[in-house]
Amino acid sequence: MTRALQLAVLAGAVAIFSTGCSVQDVIRFGWPVGVTPEATMMRTLWTWSAIAALAVGVIVWGLTAWTVAFHRRKAGDSELPRQFQYNLPLELVLTVVPLIIVAVLFYFTVVVQNVVDRQPAGNELKVDVIAFQWNWDFEYPGTRQPTGQPVSTVGTTAEVPLLVLPTDRPISFTQRSEDVIHSFWIPEFLFKRDVLPDPEKNDQKNVWVIDKIEQPGSFVGRCAEYCGSYHSMMNFEVRALPGNLFDQYMQLRQSTNAATGQPYTAAEALARMNCGPLCSPTAVTTHPFNPDPTTRLAF
Ligand SMILES: [Cu+2]
Q1: How many angstroms is it from 286 CA to the middle of ligand 1?
Q2: Distances from the Cα of 11 to the Cα of 14, 15, 17, angstroms
Q3: How far is ligand 1, taken at its centre, from the CA of residue 4, in Å?
């Protein structure tokens, strides 16, 4: 018995350590590293929920193994073993303990949800996210190009749209769809949210907030709601810039590019800023897809 236990512990240790995962990797239980405070809160909730589930699991597996190992029918047994139904203390424990578990999980879920799903305080940078079959339009209300239009970045079949955001301030996203239901998903935000048509008419809450993006970088974004033929190609990229670079970007987007006589596009502004990989004028986390169905390629 001791030998079997030693072997089980050894096998478990080999299984865990041979993956080469750090403690941080293990306790994320498969989730990516988040880049917003909200993402970290959700990940922490997930970690503790998984630990609570594992604790319950270990108790159940242990009791099951104990029953199987020590309470088997023995040769010569003809009667039923002693029965335990109507054991009031035991049944009370089995009712109260799950209730406590559910209440605790519920409490922490509500606490995190109230933060993640909060409404804007008014000091956020505003971004409108407009989804359509099969691309994205990101607009910055309150900005003004020389043409009189607000700054916007629209994706095309040939160009993955860049959602340029600052790392140093809160941001509020207002979502709507021009056609069917899409879903706005940046894996590093650990958050996806359905983008619905006519949210105001349908009395749907379509605004959400992040406190900040905690590091500069490029993060892929995807549509996470099946929305038709080219759903899988409906990608975008978040380009998180330090505050001063973001301000420079927005200034350029609101001025005229002498070379074209038109307001700077996202790609032209980033190329002009020339700040290394952060200013790459095209997406670095994903690439445009060939939408020609006769090529018969998956992507
Ligand atoms: Cu979509």
Answers
A1: 16
A2: 5, 6, 10
A3: 52
Q: How far is the CA of 226 from the centre of ligand 1 (A)?
A: 6
Peptide bond into 134 cis (omega under 30): yes
Chain length of the chain: 299
Looking at domain 125-288, what is its CATH homologous superfamily?
Answer: Cupredoxins -  blue copper proteins (2.60.40.420)
How many Å lie between the centroid of ligand 1 and the Cα of residue 184? 8
Q: Burial letters for 220-255: b for 16+ Cβ neighbours within 10 Å, e otherwise? A: bbbbbbebeeebebbbbbbbbbeeebbebbbebbbe
- Residues in the chain where the model's pLDDT stays below 70: 296-299
Q: What is the CA radius of gyration of the chain?
A: 27
Kind and range of the H or E run holding 221: strand 217-223
CA 149 to ligand 1 center in whole angstroms: 25
Spatial separation of the C-alpha atoms in residues 12 and 220, rounded to whole Å:
35
133 Cα–ligand 1 center, Å: 6
pLDDT tens column, 217-229: 999 999 999 999 8
Q: What is the pLDDT of residues 36-54, one digit of tens each?
A: 999 999 999 999 999 999 9
Q: Which residues contact 213 (CB under 8 A, 6 or more apart)?
A: 35, 36, 165, 166, 167, 171, 238, 240
Count of CB atoms situated within 10 Å of the CB of 183: 20
